[in-house]
Design goal:
By secondary structure, this protein is mainly alpha-helical. The chain is built from four helices and two strands, in the order ααββαα. The protein has a two-stranded antiparallel ribbon. The radius of gyration is 34 Å and the shape is rod-shaped.
Amino acid sequence: MVWMIVVAAIAVLGAGAMVAGGAFNGMRSEPETDDFVPTLPATRMTGEDLQQVRFQVQLRGYDMPSVDNLLARLAREIDQREAELAELRQKVSEPTSGDFLPVSAEDAE
């Protein structure tokens, strides 16, 4: 009786190993890769776009080239926005020919 239980247990374990090994076409022959590429908009990024970014996790953390590429892009966009902001601030602070200049009471006489 004990021998029958041992043989049945071996048969069940063997069948489980065969299923796990793909003997019954249960697994694909080619490996599945986890190549997750974050989708970034072609235009300027917004805060919401940045919150939606997810990176591929690897053995020792996140995929470093993906993180480096995103940081480089954000640095370029911040530099562009700072330059545009400085240009707009300069335009606002400089009077143009059509602007009225403030006149003191002494100059009015």
